[in-house]
UniProtKB/TrEMBL annotation:
It comes from Pseudoalteromonas rubra. CDD domains: LCL_NRPS-like (cd19531). Residues 2-284 form the Condensation domain. PANTHER family: ENZYME, PUTATIVE (JCVI)-RELATED, PTHR45398. One of its GO terms (molecular function) is catalytic activity. This is Non-ribosomal peptide synthetase. It comes from the Bacteria. Pfam families: Condensation.
């Protein structure tokens, strides 16, 4: 927990056009930290394993880099350097606030706003919550209005305690038995042909491939899914499974997919790590 790794950093960057009041930004983020206890929670080794400690106060400071005096090329270099430093600096889970932010000012009314949260206190849904609350609070504070956000009904620690109580020894054994049976015969790795030999040690050098479907194709897929009583996800997952089966010459296809895991309304406005990866096993021979 002391040394940490940047592997679990969740960075985001936003171009800013227009005057940005940095004192208001700092006040907004301080409010968000005070509002979401998970952002001011630290983790320590206890007698029974890792323990969380929710601090009463956690002071936040916005880092600011002013590069207005540089030309365009130098500004891009400064932005790239600042982003690398911000996004690759590990969090110390025993002492740090679980969110960092910085502003790179490139002109009087332009700049880049950087956010970085640790995955132990955040997920993709949480980033949306952060941005939504940031906008609402900034609009209010910049007009000298009060905090417009409704109080949170629960905190992440309440969810963690509920989950711990729910997963008693008996329930945990039942859940483990179920998944062990479901995944008993799945292959340990896929058998797709690779361009290079698989390394002995797991690497983190994968790429992200994106594509956009045309409006006509998207509408066609939606209509097909509806006609077959499927969701669009189910249809596309089935198609991907068949594709992987064809190219790997295998019938058992295993695909992991993230799920938000926020099935209670009280969890929707929370920042925290709720996401889970669901293993979907498809037998394409059926």
């Amino acid at each position: 927990m002391h040394k940490g790794s940047a592997q679990y950093n969740m960075p985001a960057a936003f171009d800013v056009s227009g005057t940005l009041d940095l004192q208001v930004v700092e006040a907004v983020l301080q409010t968000i930290i005070d509002r979401h206890e998970v952002l001011k929670t630290v983790y320590r080794d206890g007698e029974q394993g890792a323990e969380q400690l929710i601090r009463q106060q956690a002071h936040f400071t916005l880092s600011v880099d002013d590069v207005r005096m540089h030309d365009a090329a130098q500004q891009q270099q400064a932005i790239a350097l600042a982003m690398t430093e911000q996004f690759t600096q590990p969090f110390d889970l025993t002492r740090d606030v679980m969110i960092r932010a910085g502003y790179i000012q490139t002109a009087d009314d332009e700049g880049v706003l950087l956010f970085n949260m640790h995955h132990i206190a955040s997920d993709g849904w949480s980033m949306q919550v952060l941005v939504k609350e940031f906008v609402q609070l900034y609009q209010a504070y910049s007009q000298e209005q009060r905090n417009p956000l409704a109080p949170l009904a629960i905190q992440y620690a309440d969810y963690a305690q509920w989950q711990r109580d729910y997963l008693s020894d008996t329930m945990l054994e039942q859940q483990l038995d179920y998944w062990q049976q479901q995944l008993a015969d799945v292959p340990p790795v896929h058998s797709l042909p690779l361009d290079y030999p698989r390394p002995d040690i797991k690497q983190h050098q994968g790429a992200c491939v994106k594509s956009t479907l045309s409006k006509d194709v998207a509408q066609g897929l939606t209509a097909l899914a509806k006609a077959q009583g499927l969701t669009p996800f189910m249809l596309l997952h089935g198609a991907l499974s068949l594709l992987l089966s064809r190219h790997s010459n295998a019938q058992e296809i295993v695909i992991g997919t993230p799920v938000a895991n926020r099935m209670q309304a009280e969890l929707e406005p929370l920042i925290g790590f709720f996401v889970n990866t669901l293993v979907l096993n498809v037998n394409t021979a059926q």
